[in-house]
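**User:**
My hope is that you can spare some time for a protein that puzzles me. This is the protein in question:
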Amino acid sequence: MLYFAIAALVVILDQASKRIVWEVYKYSGGTDVIGDFLRFQLSTNKGAVFGILSNAGHLLLVIRTISIGVLVFFAYRMRYAPAHKRVCLGLILGGAFGNLIDHIAAGEVIDFLDVGIGTHRWPTFNVADIAVTAGALLLILGYALHPESHPKENEPPLREQS
């Protein structure tokens, strides 16, 4: 159940960071952390990543809930997978659940990390977004760099030799 422990840790870090930053910067809006490269800049997002489906309301809630259900199914299917794959899945699951909590509680997600140079800024994001992105990229990278370690369809998994 490594993925559930990782997911729980991500949810705790995500929700705690959002609450702390909200309480500290709710009146000022934010502050520079590393010059103008990294800022805490409070914003909310009613949509999915980059504001996609921001007017979808209940549809987005249904999509997020189904996505988490699919992730839990994959977690069950991957319960014997190597630890690094389960960690990646835990990151994705925790991030998805962290943003779902915000969506259910407030109808929008709190974002606060603002990265860029001058007027060239990346869309504001949060710890949950980092976890989903890192988990997905690491999982894809693992499959790309080590395709031999993944069984092909209708082929039994490789057994480690003692």
